[in-house]
């Protein structure tokens, strides 16, 4: 069974840093497009970041560009999101997600359960 | 404010049909056939219901159908069932600057 399990969410003060992890099983992270998607409390979904499978290539929403970094550890089959200079508006449930097809990065059919990040003093 | 516009709510009685719209621009919905629809129950992760405008992943009932006309995509749920009560989100590829954009979500209530 293909599965994603996120961890690392926490209560963090504004300006702080946090690293989220997303452990995959049943498929290989390194050969797939992978994204982070977030959902603020009571709000809709927002795409955050994308990493290409195989070679390099990372992309970010304007709201997190320059503050967040997506990466992966192929040996651990794990995706990461390093979040720096956190703001209150980054408060959300963060999901990692894999697309339905290897042909393009969208239409996510495998999702983790989500991990909650709360930015507050 | 979400990039794609959805009605906040929709409802129907069991067995009826409900259609949810998702309005964007020529830079997203109208420009690409990469519209997806997700169902999300409270406290759960989203579930892919439709991809590439009108295709259903394996296991999704054929009661769910998608379409697009110009800059507006639509999701129709036919033969409404109690378990269809959920939030529904549309998304679309929006080019190499904005990548993927979502709608604000529509809460579907089964009366």
Detailed description of the structure:
The complex is a heterodimer of chains A (121) and B (111). By secondary structure, chain A is mainly β. Helices cover 0% and strands 50% of the residues of chain A. Chain A contains no helices and eleven strands. In chain A, strand 4 (34-39) and strand 5 (45-51) form a beta hairpin. The radius of gyration of chain A is 13 Å and the shape is globular. With 111 residues, chain B is mainly β. Chain B contains one helix and nine strands, in the order βββββββαββ. Chain B has one helix at 95-98, and strands at 9-12, 18-23, 35-40, 47-50, 64-69, 72-77, 86-93, 100-102, 106-110. In chain B, strands 1, 3, 4, 7, 8 and 9 form a six-stranded mixed β-sheet that branches. Chain B is globular, with a radius of gyration of 13 Å. Chain B starts with 8 loop residues before the first strand and ends with a strand. The chains are: A mainly beta (121), B mainly beta (111). Chains A and B meet through strand 5 and strand 10 of A and strand 7 and strand 8 of B.
Q: For the largest interface in this structure, which chains are involved and how many residues does each contribute?
A: A-B, 23 and 22 residues
- Got a strand count of chain A? 11
Element pattern of chain B in H and E: EEEEEEEHEE
**Low-confidence parts of chain B:** none
Query: What can be said about the biggest beta sheet of chain A?
Result: 7 strands, mixed
Question: What general outline of chain B do the C-alpha atoms trace?
Answer: globular
The total of helices of chain B stands at: 1
Net shape of chain A: globular
Supply the helix-strand structural class of chain B: mainly beta
Tally of helical runs of chain A: 0
Helix content of chain A: under 10%
Terminal-residue CA separation of chain B: 29 Å
Approximate strand percentage of chain A: over 45%
What class would the helix/strand composition of chain A place it in?
A: mainly beta
The Rg value of chain A, from CA coordinates, equals 13 Å
What Rg of chain B is obtained from the alpha carbons, in whole angstroms?
A: 13 Å
